[in-house]
Description:
This protein is of the alpha/beta class and 257 residues long. Helix content is 27%, strand content 28%.
Amino acid sequence: MRASLIQIAVDPDESVxxxxxxxxxxxxxQSGADLVVLPELWTTGAFAYELFDAEAESLAGPTxxxxxxxxxxxxxxxxxxxxxxxxPDGTLYNTALVFSPAGELVRTYRKIHRFGFDKGEAVMxxxxxxxxxxxxxxxxxxxxxxxxxxxxxxxxxxxxxxAETLVxxxxxxxxxxxxxxxxxxxxxxxxxxxxxxxxxxxxxAGVPQSGHSIxxxxxxxxxxxxxxxxxxxxxxxxxxKVGETREQFPALKDRVL
Length: 257
C-alpha cells in the first residue's frame, strides 16, 4: 500500500483559489498511490484566524469540487486535509474531507479538540462530537486533526472502532516540532497502528510551521520523514504488519481501562 503525504506550503501572498489549483495538481501527480493526504486548513493556514469567516465554505463548496475531481483524476483515496466549514446554522467547524477514487465524498470529520485555549480556533469554531473511520480496501483509517494528537483517548476510540492506520492532518507550529515527532511515535506504539501525520510548511499568519510530516509503523519505527519545506513524502506500507504486531506483542489485550 503506497501512501503520499503532501506537505504543502501556505504562502500568504498566494490566493486561496491558486493554492487549491496547485494542491489539486499535486494530488493528480500521485496517480498510482493508494492513499494521499493533505494537511489541516491548507487553504487558509491554521493560524490565519482573520481569514476563517471570509473563507468558510459548505461541504459542497469550492474545495470539495476541486478535490473531488483531483481524487477521481488520480484514482486515489484522498484525505483532502481540512477546511473551515460553515454549517447551515452558521457555526464554523474545522472539518476533514475524505474522497474515494471515484471522487465521492465518503467521510467527514469535525475536529474534536480545538486549539487556542481562550482564543483563535477554540472560540471561533464548534467542537466535533463523533469519531470517524473510513474502510479502505487494505486497511481501516481513523481520522484525527492536529491538536487531537495530544489526546490519546481519541486514538484508543479509533482503534476500538477498527482503525489500523491513524491519519493526522495538521498545521503544527515549528516551535513545538519535538512534540510532533514524539507524539506521532507514541500514538503508533501504544495503539500498534500505522500513524501518517501530514503537516504544512511555510508560515501561517506569522507562525512558522513545523513541516516534518512523518510516517510511523506499529512498532514505532519511522518509515519516512519530510524536511521543513514543501515536499511530497511517499512511503510503502505493509497492511499485514498491524495484525502481526498485535499478535506478536498482544498488549492491547491486557487493557484494563
